[in-house]
Amino acid sequence: MTTNNPIIDIMQTRHSVRQYDGQPIDRTELNRLLTTAFLAPTALNQQPIRALVIDSPEVRQQLTAATGNTSQLTTSAAVVLFVNDLENRDEAKPFQPAQRPAPTSHQAIGALDVGLVAMQFMLLAKDAGYDTNPMTGFDAAMFNQILNLDPRRYQPLLLVSVGQAAKAGKLAEHKPLSQLVDYR
Ligand SMILES: Cc1cc2nc3c(=O)[nH]c(=O)nc-3n(C[C@H](O)[C@H](O)[C@H](O)COP(=O)(O)O)c2cc1C
User: Which domains does the chain have, with CATH numbers?
Assistant: First the structure.
């Protein structure tokens, strides 16, 4: 069902895809999508989220040891690991340790910020003809180790596969609005 409204059409046709055709996506194209995705709002405009694009088939194969989501890793064009930068440095300014938010609030806010960036990325990817699958089903500590990320600084939050679908996604079951929305 199309509505002639591009935003609504993209939202209605984005479904998680777990099998891709293995074709690569140009890094320029991925950067184009990520540039716009990172326009997402963040708390206090701190922009704590970083994206690690893993398009190397060898590295993705290594990562399969740390997740059950293997088809997404091995058949996609790339997976994007969105991490929370716990130091949350503004590279333009010298880092002041006193400005660092309490770790728990930093982690909770990062988890909110990542959802907005990742959602924009998935919708932009759909608009460009690609499909995606967001994933939290991976071992973050093992990912840090394999990817050589300092666990004191980087907290892996969300992995998103991207590529051309080999097996189309389908509309998931959704609860009725009456169960989801209330008014006061
Ligand atoms: C935070 C989050 C974590 C998810 N983790 C996984 C995952 O580890 N593996 C997977 O196959 N799908 C994962 N999904 C995808 C959901 O299963 C999927 O979004 C949901 O079933 C609705 O389907 P749709 O994306 O096609 O609308 C995750 C989705 C979200 C939002």
Answer: 6-166 (3.40.109.10)
Q: How confident is the model at residue 105 (pLDDT cuts 50, 70, 90)?
A: confident
Strand intervals (E) in the chain: 49-54, 78-85, 131-135, 154-163
pLDDT of residue 96: 58
Residue of 81, 121, 126, 135 to test ligand 1 pocket, by largest number of atoms within 8 Å of CB: 135
Compute the C-alpha angle 157/146/57, nearest 5°: 95
3 state DSSP class of 149: coil
- Give tens-digit pLDDT for 66-93: 999 999 999 999 999 999 999 876 655 5
Predicted confidence at residue 99, as pLDDT, reads 59
Ligand 1 center from residue 67 Cα (angstroms) = 14
Which residues lie with the beta carbon below 6 Å from any ligand 1 atom? 15-16, 18, 69, 133-137, 169, 172
**Listed residue (40, 145, 48) closest to 87, CA to CA:** 48
Q: What is the CA radius of gyration of the chain?
A: 17
Taking CA atoms only, the protein residue closest to ligand 1 atom 29 is: 134
Q: For residue 134, is pLDDT > 80? A: yes
Q: Whose CA is nearest to atom 22 of ligand 1?
A: 172
Atom 17, ligand 1: which residue's CA is nearest? Answer: 16
What is Dmax (Cα atoms) for the chain? 53
